[in-house]
Amino acid sequence: MVGVTDRRASGPPFRATPMPVGRPLLSLTLAALMDDVHAHSGAVYLLTPDEPVLEMAVMAGLPRAFAAPWERLGLSAPIPVAEAARDRRLVWVGGEEEMARRYPRISMVLPYPFALAALPVATDRAMYGAVFVTWPGAHPPDLSEWERDHLTAACARLAMRLERAHEKGHPVRPEPDLLAPAPMASVAGTLGTVEAARMVARLPYGLCALDLQGRITFANAAAAELLGVPVSTLLGTQLWAAVAWLNDPVYEDRYRAALLSQQPTSFVALRPPADWLSFRLHPSTNGLSLRITRARAVAREGRAAFQHGETGTRLVTISQVLSLAGALTEAVGVQDVVQLVADEIAPAVGSQGLVMLGSGAGRLHVLGHRGYPDPHAVERFDGMSLTERTPGTHALRSGVPAFFESLAELKRHYPDNDPPAGSMAAWAYLPLIASGRPVGTWVLAYAEPHPFPADERAVLTSLSGLVAQALDRARLYDAKHRLAHGLQAALLPPSLPALPGIEAAARYLPATQGMEIGGDFYDLVPLAGEAAAVIGDVQGHNVTAAGLMGQIRTAVRAYTTVGQPPGEVMSSTNRLLIDLGAELFASCVYLRLDPANGQVVMARAGHPPPLLRRPDGKVRVLDLAGGPLLGIDPGATYPTTEVALPPGSLLTLYTDGLIESPGVDIEDALAGLADRLAEIGDRPLDEVADSLVRHSGTADERVDDVALLLLRATPAQGPR
User: Fold this and answer.
1) 10, 378, 480, 669: which has the fewest C-beta neighbours closer than 10 Å?
2) Residue 609, preceding peptide bond in cis (omega within 30° of 0)
3) Are the beta carbons of 209 and 216 closer than 8 angstroms?
């Protein structure tokens, strides 16, 4: 069926009614269109009923496997054919570098030289689908007016025919692809004459014919001997399936590159145990001719000749790209991205030097670098204005990568530019574009002069898109991280006051999940001859919880300063929290300390019980009477408890993040904390605080915030 979307201001979408249609409308139209503009391959997509989805209805010129990832795609997909349908305009991609820059998803799968045009199939009334056609890489970078007119007119005619079919209630269904593999025939039938077949059979090198699907339709005896597989086994099978040692994606990639680019490609492969063979593919629009010879130079020189021989430098495979993409999604901060690019991507593409440059406020900023022994050689670019004429600034401003095979080539284009020192001889300057915004440039440097063939440029440009997304995400994370830590630091006391008769230490650790900010708080307030202490936990681990925490801490301090007793401080704070309408709850323990008389008065609101280590080393859990959580009941009261605090006693206040962890019973965790406190409680207070945090298992991974306040009674000056 053909799906129709009505583009008029009112009225329901067109709906197709299934009825048979006899003529292969789509196939004939696509074939005529490709013939008119001398295109190499193409496809027609139809809009599905009631869905913003395009489905491939017919493909011509190449196996459908080439476009398998895009057989069905949403109208919002960043793909030329979807963009053409979505915007109702012709989309032109003039070559592989432009494809890599604008549509990296396609370039990662098909990093070959070809040009593409995509057009909508639509009338004034409705959208029916879209068409794309491709040309080999030899096509000029611009689409001619003649080609543009022919393409537009053909798509308009197809749209009118689809509209008439819709009006008549006839469905238009997907049709068989226009791919005509060479028939399985005799040697004489394939090559034309028996004498020609005899001539080919006498040649000392192997010859094979492959159809568009990569299946072998002819092989001479020399080919069978070189491959070590009988002719009868080779015929009708794909080369990489028939020959076990050619079952490597890199060899199939050469076949795909030849078909799509319509340019000869080659590769060298090792036939076990030690025979190197050279393969050269000559493509046409109906298949490929394959020539196989012994590669004596490779056999003598070993695998290094394969790495830099006829195939060019082998870059990352698709599996490596997927692995790198997965690793980049796990990079959290900017330095994580720099480290990953330096450790995994730069070595994978053969680079010996790396510089990562970010942009902001009209200037470049060095985010990190590797491979340069003298850091000053790179860091002199930090703060450089984007208006200066350098390869890095130009790549960032224009969005176009720049490749320099040697220092002489770099100097020819930028005579005043001095690249970072360090014996580098070739450079690739790659812009980092995320969501259409330039976020920086990464520079790959090579210790030797380095050619950048087209497929390598496409892969590097595609990788730039992955790096840019990771860098943009990491910069946002770092900014949020700085904001969170700044806010948390502003809301917690910067230091604890020195009080007579009381020694204090505190620790705060945010949750390691989310924004690393939360609602746990503590405070120590000096009073005349006394002191007040509070620890609490506002529900949540976000900016809202942190902001409410700051309000509660301020309120507690204010109510304490005006002289309210502990129970009233808790009741007043509870009513304030309800009046704020925050819909968040908070737990709290509030203390009034009298160190001179060795007494402490406590009030508790749904908070974990404090621990008291007595001078003899025994630890007691203070299961105080108390009231409900703050923020629930406006009429709640909070009874108080008086506890003796002789010199040498250690009072431990904490939030539940210190004792709660997945799979651990909270009673067991509390008992473990008490045992640890009994063991180390007589050590210096900072050492005790650090040890309790480590012992709790919350030092590295925390699902909740942790606040800890230790108060040790010291010998006082005497009673008041």
Assistant:
1) 10
2) no
3) yes
Contacts of 89 (CB under 8 A, 6+ apart): 120
Amino acid identity, position 650 = L
126's CB contacts (< 8 A; 6+ apart) are 4, 5, 6, 7, 14, 163, 166
pLDDT: which is higher, 589 or 495: 589
Q: What's the whole-number mean pLDDT along residues 48-68?
A: 87
Q: Which two tokens stand for residue 413?
A: 């284009």
pLDDT at 77: 83
**Residue 76 has what pLDDT?**
83
Residue 214 CA to residue 211 CA, distance in Å, equals 5
pTM of the model: 0.47
| Helix, strand or coil, per DSSP, at residue 52 | coil
**In contact, 586 and 547? CB cutoff 8 Å:** no
Which tens digits make up the pLDDT trace of 179-205? 754 444 444 444 455 666 667 777 778
Q: What is the DSSP letter of 385?
A: B
Q: SS3 letters for 304-316?
A: HHHHCCCCCCCCC
- Tokens representing residue 202 in the block: 């006498």
**Segment 4-20, tens digit of pLDDT:** 333 333 333 333 333 33
Distance in angstroms (rounded) separating the CA atoms of residues 400 and 351: 20
Nearest-angstrom CA–CA distance, 422 and 447: 9
The 8-class DSSP code of residue 65 comes to G
- Rounded Cα gap, residues 685 and 691, in angstroms: 10
Tell whether the model's pLDDT for residue 100 goes beyond 90: no
pLDDT at 355 over 70: yes
How far lies 129's CA from each of 4, 183, 194, 260, in Å? Answer: 8, 33, 49, 24
Report yes or no: 607 and 563 within 8 Å, Cβ to Cβ: no
Q: Are 113 and 94 in contact (CB under 8 A)?
A: no
pLDDT of residue 70: 84
- Helix 318-330 crosses helix 454-491 at what angle (to 10 degrees)? 10
What 3-state class would DSSP assign to 628? coil
Residue 305 in contact with residue 297, Cβ under 8 Å? yes
Tell me the DSSP string of 128-140: EEEEEEEEETTS-
| DSSP state, residue 248 | S
